[in-house]
């Protein structure tokens, strides 16, 4: 009759073998100098538990040096390899003490399917912590791993939803051709077709760094090189969806990149068909009219309004919340004065303010569930909050600061200039026109400095409902 604690005792004993290195006959060096970490392990355990080591420790692949096998793994960090050995010896997969993405890559190389699955599940569950830091890298990595198709599709979809902003990022310019072709084949890219074309030109120039940006300065060889670079992408661009004025301004200067028959068809289309005067998106989902925000930003704000922590895409990768952000005001279009704000936004409830700052570039703002009106004083609420986002999706984790002193949640003032007061949130936590962020009435700061310079701002009225 076996002891009910046999499994625990057995695992503890095996774990002590790994920790002490007693009876070991394998030496594994992981990491690059000067951060090399040396592990002592046991070939019988490694072979029994891991298909990679069954091959790596076979006579055909590895010979004993003295009385030990020696394995070099400079491409795997010491902390990551330590997690792998712990799993092999004990069956425990602890993800907190090492880089989960690095562990995913190492586990795929070592052929440990369970760790790959656990890492993928961890990233999908806690995706803001990963995607907001390096979405493009995760897309590249998951594209290389057959066991990460779910993660790859999730990354691809998040990128498609935020395509217009990601096209402006440096990371996207480094995508290899095959991955970019795969991405541009999607029919749900949340970006006007002309912006997809503009990105393609930038990407092609990045692949040919010796070619000048000014198309007028291109030599015949430059044109030939650019034609070869974009050739596989031209069938993916929906040129007939590009309005005529955008085609003339942004596509026609590069007409030598297009085959003659394509140019002829585009010309014939615009001559015989009334050109569209709107910026068509591939996506069927209606995006807010914004020049500052992006889809993940609006999804996150919608979730925060409902007192959630982060968007939930578990329902078929679609956000369960349906929302409408109605643009009331854009500074660069309507003006930056308090009088314009009063005329456009006075007595309108459920307002979200987005401010794009400069030097540094951030998106900050706040949610007012009540309304602003022309009087001096405060409006009390427990549901307001202020926030910060990166100007490009997934570069940093969004930050929310909920109201702490509800009595001073919303600041009211006269529309004319007031040296001591301003329209905004708290007692200076976010003053829109004075450009100050001084922590007083909310939980935490949303800007690294107490003052900011506004580049542009938008005000939306929010309507939310559930399916």
TrEMBL record:
Limits of the BTB domain: 24-97
Residue stretches making up the TLDc domain: 296-463
Pfam families: BACK (PF07707), BTB (PF00651), TLD (PF07534)
SUPFAM superfamilies referenced in this protein's UniProt entry, alphabetically: POZ domain (SSF54695)
PROSITE patterns from the UniProt entry: BTB, TLDC
InterPro entries: BACK, BTB-POZ/Galectin-3-binding, BTB/POZ_dom, SKP1/BTB/POZ_sf, TLDc_dom
Entry protein name: 4288_t:CDS:1
Lineage of source species: Eukaryota, Fungi, Fungi incertae sedis, Mucoromycota, Glomeromycotina
């Amino acid at each position: 009759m076996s002891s009910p604690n046999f499994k625990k005792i057995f695992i503890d004993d095996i774990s002590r073998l790994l920790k002490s290195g007693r009876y070991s006959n394998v030496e594994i060096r992981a990491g690059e100098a000067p951060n090399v970490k040396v592990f002592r392990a046991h070939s019988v355990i490694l072979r029994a538990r891991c298909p990679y080591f069954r091959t790596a420790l076979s006579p055909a692949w590895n010979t004993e040096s003295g009385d030990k096998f020696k394995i070099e793994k400079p491409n795997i960090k010491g902390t990551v390899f330590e997690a792998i050995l712990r799993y092999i010896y004990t069956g425990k997969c602890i993800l907190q003490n090492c880089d989960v993405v690095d562990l995913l890559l190492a586990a795929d190389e070592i052929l440990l399917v369970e760790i790959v699955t656990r890492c993928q599940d961890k990233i999908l569950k806690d995706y803001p912590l990963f995607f907001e830091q390096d979405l493009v890298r995760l897309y590249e990595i998951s594209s290389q791993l057959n066991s990460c198709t779910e993660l790859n599709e999730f990354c691809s979809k998040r990128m498609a939803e935020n395509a217009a902003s990601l096209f402006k990022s440096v990371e996207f310019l480094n995508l290899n051709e095959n991955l970019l072709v795969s991405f541009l084949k999607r029919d749900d890219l949340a970006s006007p077709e002309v912006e997809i074309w503009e990105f393609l030109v930038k990407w092609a120039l990045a692949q040919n760094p010796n070619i000048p940006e000014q198309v007028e300065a291109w030599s015949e060889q430059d044109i030939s090189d650019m034609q070869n670079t974009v050739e596989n992408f031209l069938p993916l661009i929906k040129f007939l969806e590009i309005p005529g004025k955008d085609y003339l301004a942004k596509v026609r200067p590069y007409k030598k990149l297009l085959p003659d028959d394509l140019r002829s068809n585009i010309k014939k289309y615009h001559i015989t068909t009334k050109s569209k005067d709107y910026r068509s998106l591939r996506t069927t989902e209606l995006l807010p009219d914004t020049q500052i925000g992006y889809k993940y930003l609006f999804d996150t704000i919608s979730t925060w309004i409902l007192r959630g922590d982060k968007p939930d895409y578990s329902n078929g990768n679609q956000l369960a919340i349906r929302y409408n952000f109605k643009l009331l005001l854009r500074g660069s279009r309507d003006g930056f004065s308090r009088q314009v704000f009063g005329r456009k936004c006075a007595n309108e409830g459920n307002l979200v303010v987005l401010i794009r700052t400069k030097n540094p570039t951030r998106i900050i703002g706040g949610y007012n569930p009540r309304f602003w009106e022309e009087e001096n004083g405060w409006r009390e609420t427990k549901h307001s909050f202020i926030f910060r986002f990166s100007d490009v999706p997934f570069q940093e984790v969004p930050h929310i600061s909920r109201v702490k002193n509800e009595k001073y949640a919303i600041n009211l003032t006269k529309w004319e200039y007031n040296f001591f007061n301003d329209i905004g949130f708290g007692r200076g936590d976010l003053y829109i026109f004075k450009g100050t962020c001084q922590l007083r009435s909310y939980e935490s700061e949303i800007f690294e400095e107490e003052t900011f310079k506004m580049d542009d701002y938008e005000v939306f009225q929010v309507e939310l409902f559930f399916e």
